[in-house]
Amino acid sequence: MTVGKRGILFVLSGPSGAGKGTVCQALMARQPALSLSVSATTRLPREGEQHGVNYFFKSTEEFRTMIANNQLLEWAEVYGKFYGTPRSFVEDRLEQGIDVLLEIDIQGAMQVRCTYPDGVFLFLIPPSATELRSRILGRGSETDESFQRRFGAARHELQQMKEYNYVVVNDVVVSACARIEAIIQAEHCSVHRNLELLNEW
Ligand code: ADP
Ligand code: 5GP
Known about the structure:
43% of the residues lie in helices and 20% in strands. It is of the alpha/beta class and 201 residues long. The chain has a single domain (9-200), classed as Rossmann fold (3-Layer(aba) Sandwich), CATH 3.40.50.300. A hairpin with a 2-residue loop joins strand 5 (72-78) and strand 6. The chain is globular.
Protein backbone atom coordinates (compact mmCIF):
# COMPACT_ATOMS: atom_id res chain seq x y z
CA MET A 1 0.00 0.00 0.00
CA THR A 2 1.32 3.46 -0.93
CA VAL A 3 2.50 5.60 1.99
CA GLY A 4 -0.05 8.29 2.86
CA LYS A 5 -2.87 6.52 1.08
CA ARG A 6 -6.16 6.12 2.91
CA GLY A 7 -7.56 2.66 3.60
CA ILE A 8 -10.65 1.39 1.79
CA LEU A 9 -13.94 0.90 3.60
CA PHE A 10 -15.59 -2.45 2.81
CA VAL A 11 -19.19 -3.01 3.94
CA LEU A 12 -20.72 -6.49 4.09
CA SER A 13 -24.47 -7.06 4.46
CA GLY A 14 -26.86 -9.92 3.80
CA PRO A 15 -29.80 -11.77 5.33
CA SER A 16 -29.50 -13.12 8.86
CA GLY A 17 -27.99 -16.60 8.68
CA ALA A 18 -26.22 -16.00 5.34
CA GLY A 19 -22.95 -16.50 7.22
CA LYS A 20 -21.68 -12.91 7.57
CA GLY A 21 -20.21 -13.42 11.03
CA THR A 22 -18.63 -16.74 10.05
CA VAL A 23 -17.15 -15.39 6.82
CA CYS A 24 -15.85 -12.22 8.52
CA GLN A 25 -14.08 -14.24 11.23
CA ALA A 26 -12.52 -16.53 8.61
CA LEU A 27 -11.50 -13.53 6.54
CA MET A 28 -9.81 -11.86 9.51
CA ALA A 29 -7.74 -14.99 10.10
CA ARG A 30 -6.61 -14.91 6.46
CA GLN A 31 -6.17 -11.14 6.11
CA PRO A 32 -4.50 -9.74 9.23
CA ALA A 33 -4.06 -6.37 7.49
CA LEU A 34 -7.82 -5.93 7.35
CA SER A 35 -9.48 -4.37 10.39
CA LEU A 36 -12.94 -5.55 11.46
CA SER A 37 -15.11 -2.96 13.18
CA VAL A 38 -16.82 -4.18 16.36
CA SER A 39 -20.40 -2.87 16.56
CA ALA A 40 -22.38 -1.76 19.56
CA THR A 41 -25.72 -3.47 20.17
CA THR A 42 -28.54 -3.64 22.68
CA ARG A 43 -29.24 -7.31 21.94
CA LEU A 44 -28.16 -9.94 24.47
CA PRO A 45 -24.97 -11.94 23.86
CA ARG A 46 -25.38 -15.37 22.29
CA GLU A 47 -23.59 -18.25 23.93
CA GLY A 48 -19.84 -17.84 23.44
CA GLU A 49 -20.03 -14.20 22.34
CA GLN A 50 -17.67 -11.84 24.12
CA HIS A 51 -17.99 -8.14 24.91
CA GLY A 52 -15.51 -6.18 22.81
CA VAL A 53 -14.87 -9.12 20.48
CA ASN A 54 -18.22 -9.89 18.83
CA TYR A 55 -20.03 -6.74 19.95
CA PHE A 56 -19.95 -4.03 22.57
CA PHE A 57 -23.08 -5.06 24.47
CA LYS A 58 -24.90 -1.93 25.67
CA SER A 59 -28.06 -1.01 27.53
CA THR A 60 -30.60 1.02 25.54
CA GLU A 61 -29.67 4.07 27.64
CA GLU A 62 -25.95 3.67 26.88
CA PHE A 63 -26.74 3.24 23.20
CA ARG A 64 -28.85 6.40 23.16
CA THR A 65 -25.98 8.30 24.79
CA MET A 66 -23.64 7.13 22.01
CA ILE A 67 -26.12 8.45 19.43
CA ALA A 68 -26.49 11.78 21.27
CA ASN A 69 -22.70 12.19 21.45
CA ASN A 70 -22.31 11.52 17.71
CA GLN A 71 -20.14 8.48 18.49
CA LEU A 72 -21.80 6.29 15.86
CA LEU A 73 -20.99 6.41 12.17
CA GLU A 74 -24.38 4.82 11.50
CA TRP A 75 -27.00 3.02 13.53
CA ALA A 76 -30.23 1.18 12.92
CA GLU A 77 -32.93 -0.80 14.66
CA VAL A 78 -32.70 -4.38 13.42
CA TYR A 79 -35.13 -7.11 14.51
CA GLY A 80 -36.22 -4.89 17.42
CA LYS A 81 -32.71 -4.14 18.80
CA PHE A 82 -30.27 -1.28 18.20
CA TYR A 83 -26.99 -1.82 16.34
CA GLY A 84 -24.36 0.80 15.45
CA THR A 85 -20.80 1.32 14.26
CA PRO A 86 -18.42 3.22 16.58
CA ARG A 87 -17.17 6.16 14.52
CA SER A 88 -13.65 6.83 15.82
CA PHE A 89 -12.29 3.31 15.17
CA VAL A 90 -13.30 3.44 11.50
CA GLU A 91 -12.07 6.98 10.89
CA ASP A 92 -8.72 6.39 12.62
CA ARG A 93 -7.98 3.16 10.75
CA LEU A 94 -8.84 4.58 7.34
CA GLU A 95 -6.70 7.63 8.08
CA GLN A 96 -3.81 5.30 8.95
CA GLY A 97 -4.15 3.62 5.55
CA ILE A 98 -5.73 0.46 6.98
CA ASP A 99 -8.70 -1.18 5.21
CA VAL A 100 -11.77 -1.55 7.41
CA LEU A 101 -14.57 -4.11 7.17
CA LEU A 102 -18.06 -3.37 8.51
CA GLU A 103 -20.56 -6.20 8.91
CA ILE A 104 -23.81 -4.29 9.16
CA ASP A 105 -27.43 -4.42 8.02
CA ILE A 106 -28.80 -2.83 4.85
CA GLN A 107 -30.22 0.30 6.52
CA GLY A 108 -26.81 0.98 8.07
CA ALA A 109 -24.99 0.27 4.81
CA MET A 110 -27.15 2.83 2.98
CA GLN A 111 -26.27 5.44 5.63
CA VAL A 112 -22.57 4.64 5.22
CA ARG A 113 -22.91 4.95 1.45
CA CYS A 114 -23.94 8.60 1.92
CA THR A 115 -20.91 9.42 4.10
CA TYR A 116 -18.46 7.14 2.26
CA PRO A 117 -19.55 7.03 -1.40
CA ASP A 118 -16.10 5.65 -2.13
CA GLY A 119 -16.77 2.58 0.05
CA VAL A 120 -17.17 -0.89 -1.43
CA PHE A 121 -20.49 -2.58 -0.73
CA LEU A 122 -20.72 -6.37 -0.72
CA PHE A 123 -23.84 -8.49 -0.37
CA LEU A 124 -23.47 -12.01 1.02
CA ILE A 125 -26.17 -14.53 0.14
CA PRO A 126 -26.70 -18.19 1.02
CA PRO A 127 -26.82 -20.70 -1.87
CA SER A 128 -30.59 -21.27 -1.37
CA ALA A 129 -33.59 -20.46 0.85
CA THR A 130 -33.52 -24.03 2.20
CA GLU A 131 -29.90 -23.62 3.21
CA LEU A 132 -30.69 -20.25 4.82
CA ARG A 133 -33.45 -21.83 6.90
CA SER A 134 -31.20 -24.62 8.12
CA ARG A 135 -28.37 -22.18 8.91
CA ILE A 136 -30.57 -19.94 11.05
CA LEU A 137 -32.06 -22.97 12.82
CA GLY A 138 -28.66 -24.67 13.04
CA ARG A 139 -27.24 -21.72 14.94
CA GLY A 140 -29.70 -22.71 17.67
CA SER A 141 -29.83 -19.20 19.13
CA GLU A 142 -33.20 -17.95 17.90
CA THR A 143 -36.60 -18.24 19.51
CA ASP A 144 -39.42 -19.30 17.19
CA GLU A 145 -40.53 -15.68 16.86
CA SER A 146 -36.99 -14.45 16.21
CA PHE A 147 -36.51 -17.17 13.58
CA GLN A 148 -39.74 -16.18 11.80
CA ARG A 149 -38.72 -12.56 11.86
CA ARG A 150 -35.25 -13.19 10.43
CA PHE A 151 -36.28 -15.77 7.84
CA GLY A 152 -39.35 -13.73 6.85
CA ALA A 153 -37.21 -10.62 6.27
CA ALA A 154 -34.81 -12.46 3.93
CA ARG A 155 -36.94 -12.22 0.78
CA HIS A 156 -37.29 -8.44 1.06
CA GLU A 157 -33.62 -8.08 2.05
CA LEU A 158 -32.47 -9.98 -1.04
CA GLN A 159 -34.16 -7.34 -3.21
CA GLN A 160 -31.76 -4.78 -1.75
CA MET A 161 -28.84 -6.57 -3.39
CA LYS A 162 -29.18 -4.15 -6.31
CA GLU A 163 -27.91 -1.32 -4.11
CA TYR A 164 -24.55 -3.08 -3.65
CA ASN A 165 -21.41 -3.28 -5.78
CA TYR A 166 -20.74 -7.02 -5.45
CA VAL A 167 -22.65 -10.18 -4.58
CA VAL A 168 -20.86 -13.09 -2.94
CA VAL A 169 -22.48 -16.52 -2.60
CA ASN A 170 -21.52 -18.17 0.68
CA ASP A 171 -21.62 -21.79 -0.40
CA VAL A 172 -18.37 -22.83 1.26
CA VAL A 173 -16.71 -20.47 3.74
CA VAL A 174 -13.20 -20.60 2.21
CA SER A 175 -14.61 -20.01 -1.28
CA ALA A 176 -16.62 -17.00 -0.10
CA CYS A 177 -13.48 -15.63 1.59
CA ALA A 178 -11.45 -16.13 -1.59
CA ARG A 179 -14.06 -14.17 -3.57
CA ILE A 180 -13.98 -11.31 -1.08
CA GLU A 181 -10.18 -11.28 -1.13
CA ALA A 182 -10.28 -11.03 -4.92
CA ILE A 183 -12.65 -8.04 -4.63
CA ILE A 184 -10.33 -6.36 -2.12
CA GLN A 185 -7.38 -6.81 -4.48
CA ALA A 186 -9.33 -5.56 -7.47
CA GLU A 187 -10.46 -2.45 -5.59
CA HIS A 188 -6.85 -1.68 -4.67
CA CYS A 189 -6.01 -1.88 -8.36
CA SER A 190 -8.92 0.26 -9.55
CA VAL A 191 -7.82 3.22 -11.67
CA HIS A 192 -9.68 5.87 -9.69
CA ARG A 193 -7.84 4.84 -6.52
CA ASN A 194 -4.45 5.01 -8.21
CA LEU A 195 -4.43 8.24 -10.18
CA GLU A 196 -1.36 9.44 -8.27
CA LEU A 197 0.64 6.85 -10.24
CA LEU A 198 0.34 9.16 -13.25
CA ASN A 199 2.27 11.85 -11.38
CA GLU A 200 5.16 9.45 -10.87
CA TRP A 201 5.56 9.40 -14.66
P1 ADP B 1 -25.02 -14.25 9.97
O1 ADP B 1 -23.88 -13.55 10.69
O2 ADP B 1 -25.11 -13.85 8.53
O3 ADP B 1 -26.33 -14.11 10.68
P2 ADP B 1 -23.68 -16.70 10.87
O4 ADP B 1 -22.26 -16.42 10.55
O5 ADP B 1 -24.11 -16.61 12.31
O6 ADP B 1 -24.68 -15.81 9.96
O7 ADP B 1 -23.99 -18.15 10.29
C1 ADP B 1 -25.25 -18.79 10.50
C2 ADP B 1 -25.02 -20.29 10.67
O8 ADP B 1 -24.61 -20.84 9.41
C3 ADP B 1 -23.93 -20.63 11.67
O9 ADP B 1 -24.31 -21.79 12.40
C4 ADP B 1 -22.71 -20.92 10.79
O10 ADP B 1 -21.84 -21.84 11.39
C5 ADP B 1 -23.35 -21.50 9.53
N1 ADP B 1 -22.59 -21.22 8.29
C6 ADP B 1 -22.05 -20.06 7.90
N2 ADP B 1 -21.48 -20.18 6.68
C7 ADP B 1 -21.67 -21.46 6.30
C8 ADP B 1 -21.31 -22.21 5.12
N3 ADP B 1 -20.64 -21.68 4.10
N4 ADP B 1 -21.67 -23.50 5.07
C9 ADP B 1 -22.37 -24.08 6.10
N5 ADP B 1 -22.73 -23.43 7.22
C10 ADP B 1 -22.40 -22.13 7.33
P1 5GP C 1 -27.02 -10.46 14.76
O1 5GP C 1 -28.00 -10.15 15.87
O2 5GP C 1 -27.41 -11.69 14.00
O3 5GP C 1 -25.59 -10.48 15.23
O4 5GP C 1 -27.11 -9.25 13.73
C1 5GP C 1 -28.37 -8.86 13.24
C2 5GP C 1 -28.17 -7.89 12.11
O5 5GP C 1 -27.58 -6.67 12.60
C3 5GP C 1 -27.26 -8.38 10.99
O6 5GP C 1 -27.89 -8.06 9.75
C4 5GP C 1 -26.00 -7.57 11.17
O7 5GP C 1 -25.34 -7.35 9.94
C5 5GP C 1 -26.57 -6.27 11.70
N1 5GP C 1 -25.57 -5.45 12.38
C6 5GP C 1 -24.54 -5.84 13.15
N2 5GP C 1 -23.83 -4.78 13.56
C7 5GP C 1 -24.41 -3.68 13.02
C8 5GP C 1 -24.12 -2.28 13.04
O8 5GP C 1 -23.17 -1.80 13.65
N3 5GP C 1 -24.96 -1.47 12.36
C9 5GP C 1 -26.04 -1.93 11.68
N4 5GP C 1 -26.76 -1.05 11.01
N5 5GP C 1 -26.33 -3.24 11.60
C10 5GP C 1 -25.53 -4.11 12.27
